[in-house]
Design goal:
Elements lengths: L12 H9 L2 E3 L4 E2 L6 E3 L4 E6 L9 E7 L14 E7 L2 E6 L5 E6 L4 E3 L5 E6 L6 E7 L1 H8 L2 H6 L19 E3 L7 E4 L1 E2 L8 E2 L8 E7 L4 E8 L7 E2 L6 E6 L2 E6 L7 E4 L4 E3 L6 E6 L5 E8 L8 H7 L22 E2 L8 H11 L12 H5 L1
Parallel strand pairs: 1-4, 13-16
Antiparallel strand pairs: 2-22, 3-4, 4-5, 5-11, 6-9, 6-11, 7-8, 7-10, 9-14, 12-13, 15-16, 16-17, 17-24, 18-25, 19-22, 19-24, 20-21, 20-23
Helix pairs in contact: 1-2
Length: about 375
């Protein structure tokens, strides 16, 4: 038989839903979230947009909510998970549990928090003069493409009581779990200021860097924060898609490339910058500011619940979820995903030195190279 195929095939329920909702959609390789266009999203009652950048992968997306002075979102409830990062403004969030209890907390610029799965919640702008701008990293594409049922996503009554978390998790407290450098984690629901939370050394990633991983609302969403000292940069590495990287403090730039590319894509940092490196795209972060620089990354597949084998490998957890860990900073020469300093492209260090000089910053990388490279 022959003839034109008229049946619906190759459907992406999430993208169909976004179109039906009338959301503004931003595409490309990166976005400055403080400058993106938004318009009223009736479902949440405030201006919003969706960011579908090249490296977001199959499971993750990012919304931006622009809450007007004195305004608030409409009450929400859904079975997709989200991690909120405050780009601008001050305000509060109120969460209502199934038994009528409420949890509330106040947030400001650079706060980060997670909403327990399917809990009722609402965001309030605490200022009568300035907007509040929130970014929301979610796993809605994953959930919508599995169930493709809007009513189920937004109108399910089931209470996930194990996701609520301790009461002090909503006041900025949490539990520190020391595992190993690069995997040490902070379990909580709310971090008042990502620029001041204490980080732990991760020497294997280079440049004297520090980091901390998060477990948020005992959820599936990944989040971590890293810092680079003044005049330093991290080693290049690659992983799967879907990690949305956001500049928190300081300034600098990132280089991105696929193996075999003749040149780099350069993205300059400022607060509000967001980009997700593409699948298996090498990326390297550089601090050219006169203060330590921090960036925050969110995605799907937490350290506790990696979701896929690729995520387990990237997070350094074993297939059976045991406490045994594998190296997450293995050199590409040994089959890993990290480029050691002595193996990096010869253009990278001179480019960094030039950028530091332009900003009046003394580069501090020679001590991290092999003696031969430092001498050269």
């Amino acid at each position: 038989m022959s003839g034109q195929v008229t049946g619906r095939v190759g459907i992406d329920p999430y993208l169909e839903w976004v179109k039906k909702e009338g959301l503004v959609v931003h595409e490309g390789y990166f976005a400055y979230l403080k400058e993106v266009e938004t318009k009223l999203w009736p479902r949440v009652g405030v201006n919003a947009c969706a960011c579908h950048l090249k490296g977001r992968g199959d499971f993750a997306n990012l919304f931006v909510f622009d809450i007007p002075p004195g305004g608030s979102t409409l009450p929400q409830r859904h079975i997709y998970e989200e991690v909120i990062y405050v780009l601008e403004g001050t305000g509060s969030t109120q969460i209502e549990l199934a038994n009528g209890e409420k949890r509330s907390f106040e947030w400001g610029e650079r706060s980060m928090f997670a909403i327990p799965l399917n809990a009722k919640y609402r965001h309030f702008n605490g200022s009568g003069r300035q907007r509040a701008l929130l970014s929301s990293s979610t796993d809605l594409p994953l959930k919508m493409n599995i169930f493709y049922d809007e009513s189920f996503i937004f109108n399910t009554d089931h209470e996930f009581s194990n996701r609520i978390g301790k009461e002090n998790y909503y006041s900025g407290e949490g539990d520190l779990v020391m595992i190993r450098p690069g995997n040490n984690l902070w379990e909580t629901n709310f971090v008042p200021d990502l620029d001041s939370i204490e980080l732990k050394p991760w020497g294997e990633r280079g440049g004297g860097s520090t980091n901390i991983m998060f477990v948020l609302a005992d959820g599936l969403m990944h989040a971590h924060i890293s810092e680079m000292p003044v005049g330093t940069y991290k080693k290049a590495h690659k992983h799967g898609p879907g990690l949305h990287v956001m500049c928190v403090s300081g300034s600098g730039y990132s280089l991105l490339w696929h193996e075999g590319d003749p040149d780099f894509t350069r993205i300059d940092w400022k607060h509000g910058l967001m980009f997700p490196p593409a699948d298996q795209q090498f990326h390297q972060h550089f601090n050219t500011s006169q203060r330590p620089a921090r960036y925050f990354a969110t995605g799907v597949g937490s350290l506790r619940y990696p979701l896929t084998q690729q995520m387990r490998r990237a997070s350094g957890t074993t297939a059976d979820g045991a406490s045994k860990l594998v190296a997450v900073s293995t050199s590409t020469k040994l089959g890993g995903d990290q480029v050691e300093y002595e193996d990096q492209d010869e253009r990278i260090q001179p480019m960094f030195v030039q950028s530091c000089e332009k900003n009046g910053v003394k580069q501090d990388m020679d001590r991290f190279f092999l003696k031969k490279v430092a001498a050269e």
